[in-house]
Amino acid sequence: MPKMRKKADLPSKTCQGCGLPFTWRKKWERDWESVKYCSDRCRSGKGVQKVPRVAP
């Protein structure tokens, strides 16, 4: 049985819809390079606005 990987060890990207970071998921295994959005909601652009985050 393969070893489990910690979530912190998985690759991550920033969502182009909401600007928040998201991590790799098994369902994105084949096309991780083309994944741009963290969810269907961000992909459709409904209810989420792109807001620049300001560091405190």
Tags for this model:
56 residues; little secondary structure; two-stranded antiparallel ribbon; flat
Structural account:
The chain has 56 residues and is mostly loops. It has a domain at 10-44. It is built from 1 helix and 2 strands; from the N terminus they run E-E-H. It has one helix spanning 40-44, and strands spanning 12-14, 21-23. The N and C termini lie far apart (44 Å). The mean pLDDT is 82.
Compact description:
Helix content is 9%, strand content 11%.
Layout of helices and strands, plus pairs?
Blueprint: E1 12-14, E2 21-23, H1 40-44
Antiparallel strand pairs: 1-2
The pLDDT mean sits at 82
Indicate the proportion of strand residues.
5-15%
Which secondary-structure class do the elements indicate? Answer: little secondary structure
Major β-sheet profile: 2 strands, antiparallel
The 3D shape can be described as: flat
Which sequence of SSEs, written as H and E, runs from N to C? Answer: EEH
| End-to-end CA span | 44 Å
Radius of gyration, in angstroms, nearest whole number: 13 Å
* Low-pLDDT residue intervals, each spanning 5 or more residues: none
Number of helices: 1
DSSP E strands, number: 2
How do the strands line up in the largest sheet? 1-2
Secondary structure: helix percent: under 10%
